[in-house]
């Protein structure tokens, strides 16, 4: 398995013989206004892409956890071929179909695409009224012969649904959306350093990859903040915090092979 962080939650996977694009946010730096009611007023995305957006269109499959603009934006909708297979959460397929993507379909409990099984996992995009307003979000688990089980947690805080996924699938690799995204009121809506530590404690043998930082204005936890929070813990060497464009190579049975 090869996992490359493009930016924010956008990933490019080589998995089970497929090239898989996850949560494509492909707009230019500063193309969108700040998310309102958040701690700063920087335009989004706050950083550019580390490679040309057109290079990402040559994928076999797109996975979209939910339809917030930092996971599926107008630039992605314009760039990706209308024949592109898209797997999404139930109910979102209508939006893709209306935009001309005829090969978009929802995942029930699980579905197979060629030789890769994709399962749906639950999550909570915050707490209280803000969590309700953010809507339903999901994560995905990928499984294929000869590949590590990969859990993409999606936009969720640490919660019972995450625990259930970790217990049920026993993933070797877990990708968490960190950044502690938040509004001026209420609790964080994505994982904080404390949440990342909870994932490590629950899945002590997994390699954890933390993404979703330093690209959208309401993500207030930086990579350096997360590294500092992990430094005095037993998990500092087990949590990878890639820069945009960096790649993680993981081989089943041998673990982490390369990280650059």
Give me some keywords for this one.
single chain, 260 residues, alpha/beta, Metallo-beta-lactamase, Chain A, eight-stranded mixed beta sheet, seven-stranded mixed beta sheet, 15 strands
Instruction: Round the Cα radius of gyration to an integer and report it.
Output: 17 Å
Structural class: alpha/beta
CATH class: Alpha Beta
pLDDT average, as an integer? 95
Helical residues, percent: 10-25%
Total number of helices: 6
Terminal CA distance reads 14 Å
Low-confidence stretches: none
β-strand number = 15
The portion of residues forming beta strands comes to 25-35%
**Which fold name corresponds to the CATH topology?**
Metallo-beta-lactamase, Chain A
User: How many domains, in number, for the residues?
Assistant: 1
- Rough shape? globular
Summarize the biggest pleated sheet.
Answer: 8 strands, mixed
Would you identify the CATH architecture?
A: 4-Layer Sandwich
Task: Describe what you observe in this structure.
The model has no long low-confidence stretch (mean pLDDT 95). Helices cover 18% and strands 27% of the residues. It has one domain: 4-Layer Sandwich (Metallo-beta-lactamase, Chain A). It contains 6 helices and 15 strands. Helix 2 (93-98) links the parallel strand 5 (86-88) and strand 6 (104-106). The radius of gyration is 17 Å and the shape is globular. By secondary structure, the chain is of the alpha/beta class. The longest helix is centred in the middle third of the chain and has 10 residues, at 160-169.
């Amino acid at each position: 398995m090869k996992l490359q962080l493009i930016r924010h939650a956008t990933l490019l996977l080589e998995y089970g013989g497929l090239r898989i694009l996850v949560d494509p946010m492909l707009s230019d730096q500063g193309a969108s206004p700040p998310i309102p009611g958040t701690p700063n007023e920087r335009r989004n995305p706050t950083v550019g892409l580390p490679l040309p957006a057109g290079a990402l269109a040559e994928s076999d499959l797109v996975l979209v956890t939910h339809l917030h603009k930092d996971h599926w934006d107008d630039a992605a909708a314009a760039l990706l071929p209308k024949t592109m297979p898209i797997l999404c959460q139930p109910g979102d397929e209508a939006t893709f179909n209306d935009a001309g993507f005829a090969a978009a379909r929802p995942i029930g409990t699980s579905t197979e695409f060629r030789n890769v099984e994709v399962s749906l996992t639950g999550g909570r995009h915050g707490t209280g009224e803000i969590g309700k307003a953010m809507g339903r979000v999901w994560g995905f688990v990928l499984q294929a012969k000869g590949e590590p089980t990969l859990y993409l947690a999606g936009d969720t805080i640490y919660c019972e649904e995450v625990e259930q996924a970790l217990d049920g699938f026993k993933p070797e690799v877990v990708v968490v959306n960190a950044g502690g995204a938040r509004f001026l009121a209420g609790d964080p809506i994505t994982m904080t350093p404390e949440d990342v530590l909870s994932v490590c404690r629950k899945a002590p043998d997994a390699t954890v990859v933390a993404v979703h930082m330093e690209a959208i204005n309401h993500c207030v936890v930086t990579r350096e903040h997360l590294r500092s929070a992990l430094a005095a813990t037993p998990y500092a060497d087990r949590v990878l915090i890639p820069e945009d464009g960096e790649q993680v190579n993981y081989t089943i049975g041998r673990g982490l092979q390369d990280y650059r």
